[in-house]
Amino acid sequence: MTDPTAGTAGMTLTERPDPAPGGNDVLVEVHASGFTPGELSWPGTWADHLGRDRTPSIPGHEVAGIVRSLGYGTRGLSVGQRVFGLAAWDRDGTLAESVVIEARNLAPLPGDIDFTIGASLPISGLTAWQGLFVHGRFEAGQSVLVHGAAGGVGSIVAQLAREAGAYVIGTGRAADREAALDFGAQEFLDLEHDELADIGEVDLVFDVIGGEVGSRSAALVRAGGMLVTIAGPPEARPAEGIAVDFVVEADRAQLGELATRVRDGRLRTRIGRVADLGGAVAAFNAPERAAGKTIIRVRA
Fold first, then answer.
1. How far is CA 242 from the centre of its chain?
2. What are the 10-residue block averages of pLDDT along the chain, 300 residues in total?
């Protein structure tokens, strides 16, 4: 990609040489890749950590694949190992046949988890985990309001919170009700037709929407509670609580926790569309919205 203003319409399929791993890197043979459209607005997509232009850039940050070579000094992973994880924000990404990633950003992918599932897990799963347990300081018995509870992040928040002992209230559009309840919400509120204030006070709000919804949610946080958001700095803060906005980070141990839950059936990701690499551009520019994450299956 070369044009920051073109959005997904600016994607093209092209030939690039295989990258070479540097120190503490691994070269991963990509089997499946996840892509978040919002990354096209992130500075790191177009410039390196020093602000230098790095176009044409390869998007995509979620990956599942096989380690093919190790950079100098790399430890903790081995050639031939199945892995999944996150590519750095300011380096070329995973919508490619191979990608170089820092070893610390990857975790082993168990053999009984499909690469497609593995690629759908890192951003949504780590965002949910960190928002609940790291930044949100969740404790069993608390009530959690999850905006977008049928979406990629919200559905995982709902599942993790319910498993950890929360009373989960999900929100979304009316069409999302059954999916949100299926993913663990015990109540559902239609943001288009129901009154958000009718929910009453909650211990933790997990906001993926921001704007007016995020601002109105601040008033629902009880004294000592938390508003956690990934939609940017909150415009309103709880009167007697704490507001936190954060950017997800790679974490091998947390990826392992997520994989364990996928293996034993406690956690599901929501995949809406799967395409091959040749069909990636069309998949990301499809006129109809997919109910879940689009995953590119690079290798069969």
1. 23
2. 88 90 96 89 86 90 97 95 95 95 97 97 97 96 97 96 98 96 97 93 96 94 97 93 96 98 97 93 86 90
